[in-house]
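TICKET #2291
ISSUE: user wants both folds in one file
ATTACHMENT 1:
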Amino acid sequence: MNEDSQILIPDSFVALYLNPGRSKPSVPRDELAARYELCEDLAQAMVEHARAMLFGQGISEDEVLSRCHRGLVGDGSVVSAPEATWVVRRLAELLDWECPELGRGTGE
């Protein structure tokens, strides 16, 4: 990916890669864009699974999102703890659900 990429990375995602007092992300643009695409794709892919959990297991929206978060911060996850929180917040946005306070994962 080059600097001319058309991908618009939301400020909420860029903030995951900002060191305190800095305005430039701590990773190169192509890496940031790749991480964003992974996280966005993950959130999009989880939409139907989350709905199925809600209706199939008879649990609340908050519990669905909390379980998704716990799964994303578990061992072997492809996302970091801050990215996992972003993914679940994005998932809540896609579902038009209120996002609960998420537990802190390893490294967050």
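ATTACHMENT 2:
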Amino acid sequence: MTASRPTASFGSPPLIAPIRTIGSQSFDFSQRVAVMAVVNRTPDSFYDRGSTFAFDAAVAAALAAVADGADIIDIGGAPFAPGPELAVADEVNRVIPVIEAIRESSDVVISVDTFQPEVARRSIEAGADVVNDTTGLRNPDMAAVIADSKAHVVITHSLAEPRTVYGRPTYGDVVAEVADFLGRQVNLALASGIPENRIIVDPGHDLNKNTLHSLELTRRFSEIAALGYPALAAVSNKDFVGETLDRDRGDRVAGSLAAAVVAITNGARILRMHNVRESVDAARMTEAILGFREPAYLRHNMGDRNE
């Protein structure tokens, strides 16, 4: 399927279908950046180190993120990083109760971070609106599950099989190769029956990429956005931020926000972030600078007499 694409300007990617209904929410990605909050029900997640592994902690973190302005809550039950394989039944038991609890309390968009088709299917039945697949639809059954639903899909670039060790990644041109992969997987999604207005792409910062690769992806993010689908930037607290600034995991917020703002100005329309309140402020401020939104109020130097 081929669609005509409008001409892009600074901060404005040439989106094929900018207005999206995801769950009960509507987004105009031509002038809106959505913030996706990360909530992991895993004991070994790279950033929170299991702080939201317990059911009550995961639900509380999700609802706190909603209160802080998150547009999307991304629930994960199994990391992509190397480690022991998690049984599908165990992953289901981790994510489904959280999805159900959030859906009972909020109409926020819910995403499930999984590469297992059965987990995706069960999550959609429980109320998830998005499937965030870090393998980029490598399992053809995943595309079929999503096509047979109303859910959006995030197609992410990676090289390795989930939970496996991968040697030093090499690219001739990392951005061109990532964009080529995403383009091919988008075509697979379309051929599988997923309509273009339910597709999101993610270049996969740090997923089988070193710091130089992730910096290059951020700098040339416009080439990912030029694919025509809302592009997600998952830059929060990642190793490329830590290695660039020599900062430990708990001290990467400022660097993550800087990377997020650069990604937005290069066309990113979804930010996957841990520090929600700060990320929402950064997104809204960048929207205003780009002329996508009005300030919350105008007072400074707006009267006949100003102090």
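RESOLUTION: both attachments delivered.
EXTRA DETAIL ON ATTACHMENT 2: The chain has one domain: 19-289.
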